[in-house]
């Protein structure tokens, strides 16, 4: 298979000697301060979040990091994993390594007991679509809120329209005022009322009273209101 030779997936915390290389790959793509990046990477552990490295052994016998992914749990879906920070070293893209990284990450998740993978992306829907991911309603990440923004049709590549149909069919699960709250700690005060919307942030039109999303509703959303799209795959 394309790009498979000499590859293996390992956890970062079991190979801390690769943390600098990993940080460089991530920071070349998404620049962060060294402190912030180290803080995030150093949380990798077997119980999640888990940073995974795709390693390649070169013809000279050296081992180099060529990609990274990060798995986490989802507070409301114990059987599902959240994947983020998927990245392949810039000079190695387009050679099949991204597919290898994702396939192996999914296998790691499956062996860890997860049956579904979720992710969000701004611009890599085609890549994920080729790997079997389909659009889905927003999911709750710990501490975040459900994003009710929908997918403007012009953003959907024709080969992924199946995913859009799936979204329309499943959209009724996103209720009119449904909010995702972080898990409540025992004895914690009830959550505060939601903050008023920030006028500087573009908002999609309100959901129809029935909570059923129609074709019209989706097309009325301006592209500028797009933040990210959620995708899922059953393992
Ligand atoms: C997205 C990324 C991980 C893909 O890795 P890659 O090694 O280039 O991908 P692959 O070569 O394995 O591609 C697998 C398939 O997806 C396709 N593909 C990959 N990136 C694509 C893109 N941006 N647009 C369309 N198709 C794409 C390839 O053509 C290939 O298709 P094929 O199997 O039919 O030949 C890589 O481009 C990357 O690191 N990007 C920057 C970080 C990023 O955006 N990460 C995603 C955050 S959500």
TrEMBL record:
InterPro entries: Acyl_CoA_acyltransferase (IPR016181), GNAT_dom (IPR000182), NAA80 (IPR039840). It holds the Pfam family Acetyltransf_1. Coiled coil: none annotated. One of its GO terms (molecular function) is acetyl-CoA binding. Residues 188-208 have a biased composition (Pro residues). Residues 181-217 are annotated as: Disordered. Residues 5-157 form the N-acetyltransferase domain. One of its GO terms (cellular component) is cytoplasm. This is N-acetyltransferase domain-containing protein. It comes from Scylla paramamosain (Mud crab).
């Amino acid at each position: 298979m394309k790009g498979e030779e000499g590859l293996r997936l390992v956890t970062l915390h079991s190979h801390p000697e690769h943390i600098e290389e990993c940080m460089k790959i991530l920071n070349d793509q998404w620049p962060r301060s060294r402190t912030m990046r180290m803080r995030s990477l150093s949380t990798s552990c077997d119980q999640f979040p888990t940073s995974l490295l795709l390693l390649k052994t070169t013809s000279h016998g050296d081992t180099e990091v060529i990609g990274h992914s990060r798995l986490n749990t989802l507070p409301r879906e114990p059987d599902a994993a959240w994947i983020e920070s998927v990245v392949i070293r810039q000079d190695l893209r387009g050679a099949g390594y991204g597919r290898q990284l994702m396939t192996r990450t999914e296998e790691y998740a499956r062996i860890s007991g997860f049956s579904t993978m979720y992710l969000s992306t701004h611009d890599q829907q085609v890549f994920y679509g080729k790997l079997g991911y389909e659009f889905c309603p927003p999911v709750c990440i710990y501490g975040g809120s459900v994003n009710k923004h929908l997918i403007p049709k012009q953003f959907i590549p024709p080969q992924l329209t199946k995913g859009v149909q799936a979204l329309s069919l499943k959209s009724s699960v996103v209720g009119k005022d449904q909010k995702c709250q972080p898990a409540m700690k025992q004895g914690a005060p009830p959550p505060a009322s939601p903050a008023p919307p920030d006028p500087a942030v573009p908002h999609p039109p309100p959901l129809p009273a029935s909570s059923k999303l129609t074709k019209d509703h989706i097309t009325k959303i301006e592209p500028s209101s797009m933040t990210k799209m959620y995708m899922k795959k059953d393992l």
